[in-house]
Automatic annotation (TrEMBL):
GO terms for cellular component: cytoplasm. It is found in: Cytoplasm. The lineage of its organism: Bacteria, Pseudomonadati, Nitrospirota, Thermodesulfovibrionia, Thermodesulfovibrionales. Keywords: Cytoplasm. It comes from Thermodesulfovibrio autotrophicus. It comes from the Bacteria. This is Mth938-like domain-containing protein. InterPro entries: AAMDC, MTH938-like_sf, NDUFAF3/AAMDC.
Length: 114
């Protein structure tokens, strides 16, 4: 599931273009990802992540990093055995691709716009 392109509002994965926020796994995509509170990430937003054997979660907070990821959420994910990294979406995509190439058990949750 290599991400080959990201720009504001658009991401391309394995040749398929998506224009809504998305969660990407090594073997699948969960498109049209919506969050309970829009620009703030909470545990309830990550249900799809918990269905997989994910050890690393990369969060892309948008082109202008508007999506908030509370430190308490990062700590709770760590207690569940998931290491979490938070970046603007452009950098998050690069880190996701790098860790994916290394064979890590990874998921990427990407906010595509602001």
């Amino acid at each position: 599931m290599k991400i080959t392109h990201y720009s504001f509002g658009k991401i391309v994965i394995n040749g398929n273009e998506y224009t809504q926020d998305i969660i990407v796994f090594h073997d699948s995509v969960f498109p049209s990802w919506w969050r309970k509170q829009g620009h703030s990430l909470c545990m309830e937003d990550l249900g799809e992540v918990f269905k997989k054997d994910v050890k690393i979660l990369i969060v892309g907070t948008g082109a202008y990093e508007r999506m908030q990821v509370p430190q308490s959420l990062i700590e709770e994910l760590k207690q569940r055995g998931i290491e979490t990294f938070v970046y603007g979406t452009e950098k998050a995509v690069a880190v996701f691709n790098q860790l994916l190439a290394e064979g890590k058990a990874i998921a990427g949750a990407f906010h595509l716009t602001c």
